[in-house]
Amino acid sequence: MTAATGARSLVFGVGFSPTKPLLPTHLKGLIWLDLALRATRAVVPVDCIANATRALWDATIQCIRFWAALDADPATSSPRYFDDKDDTWIGEEYVRKSRAPAEVSPELLAAYRGRLERGWTHPSARRILEHWQAQYEVMGITTPRAELTSAAAPPSAEIVEQLRRLDCAIDLRPWSGGVYVDATAAGLPLRPLIDELGRENYLMQILGVVLGLAGAYDRISILYDAPTALDFRIVAQVLSRLGKRALLIEAERIDTPGIAGTSRAGGWKPCTCAAILERYVPRYPLEVVRLGLRLYFIMYVPLASKAEFSYDLLDRAMRKARAVSRAIERAGAAPSAPPEEIASVVEPLTRRRFFERVGLIDPHALLSLLLSANSLRHHGAVLRSLCAWEAP
Amino acid sequence: MTDQAALLAELSASLGRRGIAVELRGRPVAEVAAEVRQAVRARDRGATVLVALSSFDLVDYVRGLLRLLDGLPPAARHAWDASFTRARYLAGDHRRFARAVPCELVSSPAGAIAWMGPPLSSRHRAVERMLRPLVTGTFVRPPDATVGPEDGPTRRRLELRIATSRIASLASYLVALGHTLAESFVLGVLGRDSEIAIRHVEQLAELPADRRYARVEIDPLDPERLVLATCVSPCVAGKEP
Other CB atoms closer than 10 Å to residue A67's CB: what's the count? Predict the structure, then answer.
């Protein structure tokens, strides 16, 4: 596959499975990446693959375990069953089913993955994706789904063979063992890709997509959440063996107040994207909500810092966004800025170390710049353009 | 069916050699097993070996293990024997991990297997944290093989028979084979000058009278019984084992 845009850089944003509502951790990554891409593309072409490879995230064992449990239950197996359910309802069902996870046989896994490869979407996932899309539109997030949608992982045999050629595979299948990606030479732990029962995990799929795309790019930036850091350091090692530059961007999670663990543990109902939008959309104009979300998820909870979700802080971000909106209005800013003006404002940020290190404009530094009094007076239209001020 | 009294006597001799005295006769195997485990723990000198495999070949494994045993100082060898030649099997390739964590190890001739310890150093522990336990599914029985000395003339010809019907995985196969080779080496039954014919059989029905070593285990399918897991005997010239 080649980069249609002529870009030599690719951003790979780690996606999430459509089994639960969007939560603050997801929003942080989505909003950060949206602004980083809008700004970077003003000065340099860059391709992105994020939720584009949705099938990748759907193929995880956790996801398939959930759908298999729904399909096995006569109460939830009807294709129309989820038509009147929302993402929160389905997410709560996911939490319930995750409490007593059923064993997934290699045959079951292969059957579901085969259907996914043929374009199938589980009815519950389709319903969640509809909700996500509507929420992206409210938040002004340009989902990179339409880009590079042909990215698909090659068969696992090819991936293992490529890893073997790169001298970073251990294949114990002839002795009924598993397959591992081996970056221990760099001090990283040995990581299974296929278990002794023949079940492939998500990292196998990610390696497949990344290796499949790597040929078209000089450097690949990977945005991932902090608990999976070791996996992506391993991916970076594999890419470096291919002679590619891998730039790692680590996003810390935003915890749900009073709840420990992942979204499978539940307790997130008051902090879903739907709940957040329900709280602010009736109270503020849409552009204020969009800017408030960007202030909170980029400025107030920095990407690399662990945080606990706080409505108090988000309220404060919304009030600040309203003040900024009024200041821009008073300055008589145009509804949007021409590309040359955006490029002239963004360009100095390409000389920052952050850009050199991760290949993207730093959204935090950009917002700091755009919120300065001088910038609000003269470049309010740039803020409007980059923060999706335009009407949906 | 193997004579349980004979197996009990064999087990008793193996324990007695290590200074463990447990009254075995006339008692249920399960009861004896618990007592043996407790006595073994009390006598354990904590000597363990890590074995990292990136591939498996029977001849390469046997030669590598004999390299390790031959190179161990007598004190370390006897400490390992006192700990029942305990080993932990890992997936890993020393040609890679040793670049990040240089450590003392003995590699097999083909280089796919490495032994670390005894004793284990802090670097070995770091390697163990980096690697994964060897987990395998259905046991694939390797073909029989005859392993001659890596170098030098053959001075002894031995037959090592291993019962495979109760072996569930490669790791449990390596445990049985590894203990047999290591303990036979310590006892002087075999050495680097030996030619060892390794024969896989479903079950070992009886203790051979001419055995030089026998490994007795509690039957994993019936904890009330003992079974013969392996035995080492001299090869009789002109007679196909």
Answer: 22
* Sign of the alpha-carbon torsion through A204, A205, A210, A211: positive
Residues A55-109 pLDDT 10s: 666 778 888 999 999 999 998 888 889 999 999 999 999 999 988 888 888 899 8
B25: its two tokens: 């006769």
B93 and A188: CB-CB below 8 Å? Answer: no
Contact residues for B74 (Cβ-Cβ < 8 A; gap 6+): none
The CA distances from residue A343 to A274, A349, A356, A363, A370, in Å, are 34, 10, 17, 14, 13
CA-nearest of B228, B129, B238 to B180 is B228
Residues of B with CB under 8 A from a CB of A: 53-56, 91-93, 96-97, 99-101, 129-132, 134-140, 169-170
> Which residues from chain B sit within 8 angstroms of residue A185, using beta carbons?
96-97, 99-100
Here the tokens at position A86 are 């929302």
- Which residues lie below 8 Å from residue A134, measured CB to CB, with a gap of 6+? none
Write the CB contacts of A326 (distance below 8 Å, at least 6 apart in sequence): none
**pTM recorded for the entire structure:** 0.88
What integer is the mean pLDDT of B111-135? 96
Chain A residues with beta carbon closer than 8 angstroms to that of B54: 170, 172, 182
pLDDT tens digits for A108-149? 988 988 888 787 889 999 999 899 989 999 999 886 544 444
Condensed to tens digits (0 to 9), the pLDDT of residues A292-332 reads 999 999 999 989 889 999 999 999 999 999 999 999 999 99
Interface pTM, i.e. ipTM: 0.91
Mutate to test the interface with A, among B96, B99, B167 (most CBs of A within 10 A): B96
Distance CA B194, CA B188 (A): 11
Torsion of CA B8, B13, B14, B15, to 10 degrees: 90
pLDDT of A295 reads 97
**Distance between start and end Cα atoms, chain B:** 20
- Helix H, strand E, coil C: the string for A83-118 is CCCCHHHHHHHHHHHHHCCCCCCHHHHHHHHHHHHC
**Which residue of chain B is at minimal alpha-carbon distance from A189?**
B130
pLDDT tens digits, B137-193: 999 999 999 999 988 899 999 999 999 999 999 999 999 999 999 999 999 999 989
- The residues on A that touch B, with CB distances below 8 Å, are 167-168, 170, 172, 174-178, 180, 182, 184-190, 192, 195-197
Taking 80 as the threshold, does the pLDDT of residue B45 lie above it? Answer: no
Amino acid at the residue A166: L
Q: Which residues pair with A220 in a beta bridge?
A: A10, A246
Quick one: closest CA in A to B56, which residue? A175
What average pLDDT does chain B have?
Answer: 90
Question: What band does B239 get if pLDDT is binned at 50, 70 and 90?
Answer: low
Amino acid identity at A87 = D
Per CB-CB distance under 8 Å, the chain A contacts of B102 are none
Angstrom distance (rounded) from CA B111 to CA A68: 44
Quick one: DSSP state of residue B83? Answer: T
Number of A–B residue contacts, CB under 8 Å: 74
